[in-house]
Design goal:
heterodimer, A: about 260 residues, Rossmann fold, 2 domains, 4-stranded antiparallel beta sheet, about 25% strand, B: about 325 residues, ABC transporter involved in vitamin B12 uptake, BtuC, two-stranded antiparallel sheet, two-stranded antiparallel ribbon, 14 helices, 4 strands, globular
């Protein structure tokens, strides 16, 4: 058993001639917050989609708890314990806030179409358990008073919190957050970092992609910097902030050799 | 008890109405129409589950209605199989057919899926016409036996009204239970966002096929009841226009409204049986027009729109008081 919950080895992804991610070696420590940063087009979202199984890797390996998961279909990765959010919240607009979170409990419940159709006792039992757990995640993100609203009627900040609650409802081991801070106000960002700390306290590993530097530097215990599909730096927040190549990428300065 | 009555009176009224409707002194002379409303409701509910809740279009639903009808007719008439067993076999065959079709076509989305379902609907219709050694060709088949339980034969519209509406209500209740369940949430999630649905572990492809099979089985059961009611079956009843009419019913009732299906089926049937008789072949223009108008002005469906209007109106009058 490795202490790394998630690893990539020599991971590459090419779209035709365009190499979006190149030979990435990355190790995510369990129970910590790791951030992936980099300018637009650096390959951050590609990396997320590879881990979540939306894309399949051109070469290299993705290891979850030491097991290769390259060929695991996306919907099965959730039951392994990998949950994600999207840049745009991608909520289910035809459902209420609470129902969105209940949908997140899908893989943690069993009963099927037949039991549902006939309203069998085990369906009712599981349903009340789903409701109980969903309420827990509803309160975790502080949306308790808005549970019966339509999901898309919420303001953007709250939609993003709801997306996190929905992902948390799959009871993951690792939570991938794709730009959770984008479009949020300062106050909302503060609430977001509190939430991420609470998630870590629950023993869940967090991997996030983010543009907002103050947010990243305040949260992440380890930062990985990507540029043009390649890793150019890795380390603690303060170490990264002093890294010349990172500064060059972000501010466009020439690197003195 | 009084409290219970106050809350549930509407169900009680509906139940009593449903029971007394087919008597001669009430709406007895419309029994045939009411039976068709029930049959079409069964198919429409399946379409609502598929289109309204899961967001997958089917423009060939009449094909599954027809497969159920023809297998029931052929098995019970030509091969002398007990009609109930024929009905079961027809449902299994239709389900299996839908499964194999669904497995292939749900790789498609949007307009392409619509085209594929439409194409399959037309192919099945052609088979009904061309396999004349089994189906009787364009002339169809007649003399199909009635359904019966023990010695009780469903030989009058009055009796068949209860039979059909028993099935219709069962399907409505089953569908409502499914929508409120884990499966229902998965279906609505797929409609909401397929990417997000996959990300929370929903097997999108599998659920699409599952609900497609269920809707086909509903249609097949309706088809079986149909042939044992009319005792006659011909390809015209399951052509492209029939599929379009079914979509019109679902849209009028509100695609995402289970109980709206009754309303949609009733409106469309009354329209085509009573009002559009003189239009002949031109009735498809009227359906097209209705479909467009409803989609443009009340995309949630006429039934849902009416319900909302009543709620708003009641809230207003309550305020005045």
């Amino acid at each position: 058993m490795s202490e790394f919950i998630l690893q990539t080895k020599d991971l590459s992804k090419a779209f035709g001639g365009l190499v979006a991610l190149k030979n990435l070696d990355m190790s995510i420590e369990e129970g910590k917050i790791t951030a992936v940063i980099g300018p637009n087009g650096a390959g951050k979202t590609t990396l997320f989609n590879l881990i979540a199984g939306v894309y399949s890797a051109t070469s290299g390996e993705i290891l979850f708890k030491g097991t290769r998961i390259n060929s695991v279909p996306p919907h099965k990765r959730a039951s392994l314990g990998i949950a994600r959010t999207f840049q745009h919240a991608l909520l289910f607009g035809n459902m209420t806030v609470l129902e969105n979170i209940m949908a997140g409990q899908h893989i943690r419940s069993r009963y099927g179409i037949l039991e549902a159709a006939l309203c069998l006792p085990n369906a009712k039992r599981e349903e009340s358990l789903i409701l109980l757990k969903a309420t827990k995640y509803l309160n975790l993100v502080g949306l308790g008073t808005e549970k019966d609203k339509e999901a898309l009627s919420l303001p953007l900040g709250r939609q993003k919190l709801l997306a996190i609650a929905r992902a948390m409802a799959t009871e993951p081991k690792i939570l991938l957050l794709d730009e959770p801070g984008a479009g949020l106000t300062t106050l909302e960002k503060r609430a977001l970092s509190d939430l991420i700390h609470r998630i870590i306290d629950m023993g869940i590993t967090v991997l996030l992609v983010e543009h907002d530097m103050p947010l990243v530097m305040g949260l992440a215990e380890k930062v990985i910097v990507l540029d043009s599909g390649q890793k150019i730096a890795e380390g603690g927040a303060s170490q990264i902030q002093r890294d010349k190549r990172v500064i060059a990428v972000y501010l466009g300065e020439e690197v003195e050799e | 008890m009084l409290q219970w009555l106050k809350k549930r009176w509407i169900y009680l009224v509906a139940a009593i109405l449903l029971i007394i409707i087919p008597f001669d002194w009430f709406l007895g002379k419309y029994n045939t129409l009411l039976i068709f409303i029930g049959l079409n409701t069964m198919v429409t509910v399946g379409l609502c589950l598929l289109m309204g809740y899961t967001g997958q279009v089917s423009l060939g639903q009449a094909a599954y209605y027809g497969i159920g009808a023809y297998f029931s007719a052929i098995l019970s008439k030509t091969y002398g199989v007990d009609p109930w067993i024929a009905m079961l076999i027809a449902a299994i065959i239709t389900g299996t057919f839908a499964y194999s079709i669904g497995y292939l076509i749900f790789r498609l989305k949007g307009n392409y899926l619509a085209m594929a379902t439409l194409g399959i609907g037309i192919i099945v219709w052609i088979l009904f016409r061309q396999l004349s050694q089994f189906t009787g060709g364009p002339d169809g088949m007649s003399g199909i036996p009635y359904l019966s339980i023990g010695g009780f034969v469903f030989d009058t519209p009055f009796k068949r009204y209860y039979l059909v509406w028993f099935f219709t209500l069962a399907i409505l209740l089953i569908s409502q239970n499914i929508i409120r369940s884990r499966t229902g949430r998965a279906l609505r999630a797929i409609h909401g966002s397929e990417d997000a649905a996959e990300s929370i572990g929903i097997n999108v492809a599998q659920f699409k096929v599952k609900i497609f099979v269920l809707s086909a089985v509903f249609a097949s059961l309706a088809g079986s009841l149909f042939v044992h009611h009319l005792r006659f079956v011909s390809p015209q009843q399951f052509n492209f226009l029939a599929s379009v009419k079914l979509v019109v019913m679902a849209v009028i009732g509100g695609l995402a409204s289970i109980w709206g299906a009754i309303f949609g089926a009733a409106t469309t049937n009354i329209l085509s049986d009573e009002l559009l008789l003189n239009f002949g072949e031109l009735d498809i223009i009227v359906y097209g027009l209705i479909l467009m108008l409803v989609m443009i002005f009340m995309p949630q469906g006429l039934f849902v729109k009416l319900k909302e209007t009543i709620t708003i109106w009641r809230a207003r009058t309550a305020k005045k008081d």
